[in-house]
């Protein structure tokens, strides 16, 4: 939505949208940090006093934990998308109301047009019936 045409939301909805935004930022930050740490672990050359095998095992375990954190953040993002869809479905009454109003106006205009045509047809039929009745009563062929 453009900032100029942004509707004023009730405080509860505004707070909900802010929480969605915070969740999004937290999950993306978590995924990025964990990915960067996995890359650092993969490139690290150990200069510590721990044996290379022990260091490799420790790095592998840390990578698994960080990968699990990334999966958790990804699942949280999918849940956030579902929550946002539900929010839109439940709170997009403005566009629904607008569509109903537009359809109502269209149907009202169509109804008025049909009413006018029916009234014109009624008037024409009344005139024709009046003429026929007059012709019948004034006719010599009764």
From TrEMBL:
Key word Transferase present: no
Role summary: Component of the Mediator complex, a coactivator involved in the regulated transcription of nearly all RNA polymerase II-dependent genes. Mediator functions as a bridge to convey information from gene-specific regulatory proteins to the basal RNA polymerase II transcription machinery. Mediator is recruited to promoters by direct interactions with regulatory proteins and serves as a scaffold for the assembly of a functional preinitiation complex with RNA polymerase II and the general transcription factors.
Gene: LOC117576400
GO cellular component: mediator complex
Protein name as catalogued: Mediator of RNA polymerase II transcription subunit 22
Location of the protein in the cell: Nucleus
Family according to the record: Belongs to the Mediator complex subunit 22 family.
UniProt keywords, alphabetically: Nucleus, Transcription, Transcription regulation
Chief location bin: nucleus
